[in-house]
Structure formats: structure tokens, C-alpha cells
Write a structure and sequence with these properties.
Layout lengths: L15 H16 L11 E2 L9 E2 L6 E7 L6 E6 H9 L5 E7 L5 E7 L9 E3 L14 E5 L9 E5 L2 E2 L2 H11 L7 H16 L4 E3 H5 L2 H7 L6 H14 L3 E5 L2 E4 L2
Parallel strand pairs: 3-5
Antiparallel strand pairs: 1-2, 2-3, 4-8, 5-6, 6-9, 7-8, 9-10, 11-13, 12-13
Bound molecules: zinc ion.
Length: 255
């Protein structure tokens, strides 16, 4: 990858956001590769719909690219709330690429979040737009990056240093079994994985993870037996290769 994007800067655009879009998409077309297969380039979609900016010709993986000068790993603004929730339930969110660039148009950070890490718990509803806004009443959403498990954050470029494509693809493949879990059930799986990571100990007991019971009950108000659900999801995570069962009631998170 060539991390300098300045060469793609157009002269005919007026707003900064337009310029940023042109520059980062032109850069992406020349430099982005597919993490889901071996394809060395992904194709830019000029008339994008449904938030897809790039698509892989070989495996059809879809990518959305979001760029900014600032970097906020807690949340980033996204499109309409209802459309996003619908996309999650129907399992058609694209892979998300979040790019940060410097004032001189060099790529500093590029984070890839595989599509199957987006769940309802990772989406925050924004306040409706005010009566004076052009789209009064419209409700947008934020993607809560802080609610996404670290397994779902692939550092393609970190602080100006590129991770080898082999490593990015390996990591993507390791987490890919998640995509086999039904989109509705996956919310539970990922919320329990996130709760395990919050423990900050790779080895933990059932009692340790039960501490997350209240938080999970709030996120899933229709479920009355949260502990049983936690145990079930620990088995799912074991079957997917994220956890190892050590002993009776003792678990280990695999990195
Ligand atoms: Zn591909």
C-alpha cells in the first residue's frame, strides 16, 4: 500500500467532505485489497447504494469506507437508524473500513470491522433531527466501536504502519465462523464475547461471567433466563473456536 493520498486531490470540488470522499475512494481503488479472499484489489462502485462503496469481484464481499481527520474509537456516526437495524437483522451490512488521514493526506489508521460483528447492541439511536432541519424527524445512528469485541477490529494500518495482508486475511478467516451463526442469534454470541473480554483475564469461571448478567439482561429485555443463555453462548463460542473449556466451570479465551 502507498499511504500517501495527496496525488488524488481534485481541484474542482468545493466542500472539504466532497474532497475527502474523492481522495479516499480514489486511494482505496488503487490500494485496498479483499480481506475475505486473496483478491489484491476491490472494485469501487461509482453509484453506490445501500452504503456499499467497494465490492470484491472474486468473492462479492462488500465494503463501506468511512474517512475522517479525527479518530474516535468509541463511536462513529452512520446512516439512518431503521435502515441499519434492518440491515443487521437481514444480515446484509457491509464490511466497514474506517480510515483516518493526516492534514497532508497520508493514511494514519485503517480499521476493518468484518460485517458479522455488527449487532443491535453496537448501534446507538440518535435524537431525531429538529423541526428546523431539512430532514426534520429523521433518526440517524452511531456505530458504537466500544461495543465491538476486539476480535472484530482488524488493524490494516496502525499509526502509519501497515499490517501484512496475510495477517489481516488470517485474522478475518479466524473470526469468520461467526458469520455461520444466524444474524439474530449472533447478537447474543457477540455480547457474551464482549462481556468475556471485559473481564480482562483470559481464564475465567462461570461466576465471573455471571457478573455481566444485569448488563446482558438490559441489552436483551425479552430473555428471562439470562444465565442459561450465557452458558449456551459460551458453548457456541467454544464451537466457533473463541473459547476453550478447561475444567468444570473454567473457561479460557483464545487469542
Ligand atoms: Zn474477496
Amino acid at each position: 500500500m502507498n499511504l500517501e493520498m495527496g496525488q488524488y486531490k481534485p481541484s474542482r470540488f468545493k466542500s472539504n467532505s466532497q474532497i475527502a470522499r474523492v481522495v479516499t475512494e480514489a486511494w482505496g481503488e488503487k490500494n485496498l485489497y479483499c480481506a475475505a479472499c486473496k483478491a489484491s484489489r476491490i472494485i469501487r462502485l461509482r453509484h453506490n447504494t445501500k452504503a456499499v462503496d467497494f465490492r470484491c469481484d472474486s468473492c462479492s464481499a462488500a465494503y463501506q469506507l468511512k474517512s475522517s481527520r479525527t479518530w474516535n474509537e468509541r463511536r462513529i456516526p452512520d446512516a439512518g437508524y431503521n435502515a441499519m437495524m434492518e440491515a443487521i437483522v437481514q444480515d446484509r451490512t457491509p464490511n466497514l473500513l474506517i480510515l483516518q488521514y493526516s492534514p497532508s493526506w497520508a493514511v494514519i489508521n485503517l480499521l476493518l470491522i468484518p460485517s458479522f460483528f455488527f449487532t443491535m447492541s453496537t448501534i446507538e439511536k440518535r435524537k431525531p433531527l429538529s423541526q428546523n432541519a431539512r430532514r426534520a424527524g429523521w433518526i440517524g445512528c452511531n456505530i458504537l466501536l466500544s461495543a465491538i469485541s476486539s476480535h472484530g477490529k482488524l488493524r490494516v494500518i496502525r499509526d502509519g504502519v501497515e499490517t501484512s495482508p496475510d495477517n489481516v486475511r488470517k485474522h478475518y478467516q479466524q473470526t469468520r465462523p461467526l458469520s455461520s451463526v444466524n444474524a439474530k442469534a449472533r447478537g447474543w454470541t457477540l455480547d457474551v464475547l464482549r462481556a468475556v473480554q471485559k473481564l480482562e483475564h483470559s481464564t475465567f469461571s462461570l461466576q465471573d461471567i455471571y457478573a455481566a448478567e444485569e448488563e446482558l439482561a438490559i441489552a436483551h429485555p425479552n430473555n428471562r433466563n439470562v444465565r442459561a443463555k450465557i452458558r449456551q453462548q459460551l458453548q457456541v463460542l467454544r464451537d466457533l473456536g473463541f473459547l476453550t473449556f478447561r475444567d468444570r466451570g473454567i473457561y479460557e479465551l483464545r487469542e
